[in-house]
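Entry for the shared binder. Reason: the reviewer on the internal report wants the predicted structure included alongside the sequence.
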Amino acid sequence: MLTAESRARDFPSLAGMHYLNSAAESIPPLCVQDALQAYWQDKQQGMRGRDGHFAVMAQCREISAQWLGLTPEEVSFCSCSAEAYNLLASALNLRHADEVVVSDLDFPSGATPWLAAPTRPKVKVWRSRSGGLDATDLLPLLNHKTRLVQVSLISFYNGFRLDWQPFHDAVRQLAPHALISVDVTQALGRVALDCIGADCIISSTHKWVLGLHGGCIVGIPESQAAQLTTRAGGWFQLSNAFDADRFERLSTKTGAASWSVGMPNFAAIYALNAGLRYLGVIGVEAVTRVADPLTQALHAGLLARGISPMAPRRQPTDSGIVAFQHPRSDAIHAALQAENIHVMHQAGRLRVAVHGYNTEADITHFLSTLDRALHGPAGDMP
């Protein structure tokens, strides 16, 4: 990462490829492959291998806590963000009179569990304007009935980065009974987190943190452990799972520990531990120092071509995502694929994601291919 030499050494699959889709799937470094091999070796030990499994999980909890600004006891793991949000719903046990606020820039995993609740609360949508969320639009949605406000620090949809402090202050002042849950999937490993005071922090593990599918980090501060203890059945999160009274009552571990309800996905945890430690050696500041100018160049390049990115950028370090819509998105995407340039394409939206392993050549090649797609033989449309 960051230099030609380390990029070639740690990410050999990037050779000949312009990968600009880390917001969907990252390219893990070879140390993650080594971690998976270590998992395999431990797995070959049968039950004795569990000593290695649980040792790595403890290491992963420690490094995850450092990234989230929490203690290891305040961090746990489940299988994905969708499971995490359904567990959050079980912990809150919301009623019809309760209110939940979500945003229209959030990923479905964080926005939909409240619609599936047996006693469905009232769900209010904080709607974006011009691709961004303004805290003044949130104010009318907050009151004493608000139990949860769910946001993403960086939107998967268009890369908008939430201005955290005005948002946090508004919730605390106008919704005194509300918990704040934040999805940092599109931030962790790419930008420094600033979500101080969040009650629940959730992140998938297969994007910017260079891990695999089947993992999710959950951070619950000790101050919220009692409120955010899940009500799920299982065994790993129970303190009486094998006791004589196990069919009569549940004795659930509190807080973050209650979110690991079954056997952990150790392969994903080995990978996450390796990915976070790899990024930790480099430092997120170094990642942003290299990747942010490339993101800015991409943003400026689109504007110079008369294409308006979908989200405003207040600061150079807002996010690693630049998204735009275009009537010829299908043709643009086809041209990019032909040049081995990887981006996200969905419903007329193209999303480009820049990580620390990207280079100036990736951005230059993307923009030149975009020019050919817009003005080449397929048409002459600005």
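Summary line for the report: The chain has two domains: 4-23+284-375, 31-280.
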